[in-house]
Every structure is written in structure tokens, then in C-alpha cells.
Amino acid sequence: MNTDMDSERRQRRSENKEPAITFQLEHIHREFGLHAIVVGNSDGYLVAGSRNDGTDDAVAAYVTAIGTASPDRRRVLINKLYDEQYSKQPNLELRVREFRIGGERAYLGMLGSPRANFAHAGERAVSGVQRIYQTA
Q1: Residue 31: which region, alpha, beta or left (left: phi > 0; alpha: psi -120 to 50)?
Q2: Biggest alpha carbon distance in the chain?
Q3: Mean pLDDT over residues 55-62, rounded?
Q4: By the 8 A CB rule, do 111 and 131 touch?
Q5: pLDDT for 97 beyond 50
Q6: 60 and 45 Cβ atoms separated by less than 8 Å
């Protein structure tokens, strides 16, 4: 049995990688109740994100820096991101995961409530992005 969300995903499919990844991230964003989810490349540029309000680029840049930083530097960067972008939303957590797409290093960043299922959302996002890169 198809749900409305499954039907929407089928209608919004794209043969181009970036829109397809954006659709995938938007779906995960809604499904897991995340505030934002982004994929950044190793240079800190946004590959795709779930929001269209201008914050995805900043989060992608931070996610890459956080993913490559020492543990002490990570805390400084996370605090700076919160201060600059999310000071009015104190109950958000950021999770960063490194993975590979097309042989290149990439970073997944997820912002959400401390109760969010980051592990499952991250698995879904990474497998979806990798699948899109393999088939597109």
C-alpha cells in the first residue's frame, strides 16, 4: 500500500544528482522531524540540503570543518555555528558523519532535537545519496 509520502517521492524523482539528493534529504528531514540535514563536500561547499532558507550553505561549511577538526576544535566550531545560526533555538543538536560519494569524501550534517533518531536518519541519508550517485 502506497502512502501519500511515497506517492510524492515518486512524483518528485529527478535524473540529475543534486535535485535527487535534495528530494532525498527533504524526505528524511520530514520523516525524522529534523531541523535541517545537509551534505557538504570536502571543500565545505553544499552538495544538497533540506532547507531553502539560506542556512544550508553555512551548515555545510561548518559540517566539513567539524568533520575534519580535532575534538577540541569541533566543540568550538559547533558553538560558533549555534551562536551564528541557531541561538534562538537552544534545543538543537548537530551530528556530523563522514562518508564517500563517487570516491570523494563528503560530510552529512543533521540538526535536530536531542530525541531525534540521528543514527537511523544518517543511515537512510547516506545510503540514499550513495545510491543516487551510483545510478545517476
Answers
A1: alpha
A2: 48
A3: 85
A4: no
A5: yes
A6: yes
pTM over 0.90: no
Q: For residue 107, what is the enclosing H or E element?
A: strand 104-112
Average pLDDT in the chain: 85
Give the pLDDT confidence score for residue 1 in this predicted structure.
44
**Residue 29 near residue 37 (C-beta atoms within 8 A):** yes
Report the alpha-carbon distance of residue 125 to residue 121 in Å, rounded: 6
Block residue for cell numbers 543538536:
93
Pick from 7, 36, 4: nearest CA to 22: 36
Terminus-to-terminus CA distance in the chain, angstroms? 27
> With DSSP H G I counted as helix, E B as strand and the rest as coil, what are the percentages for the chain, rounded to 5?
50, 20, 30
Residues of the chain with pLDDT > 70, as a percent, come to 88
Q: Contacts by 86-91 with C-beta closer than 8 Å and gap 24+?
A: 86/35, 86/111, 89/35
Q: Are 5 and 24 in contact (CB under 8 A)?
A: no
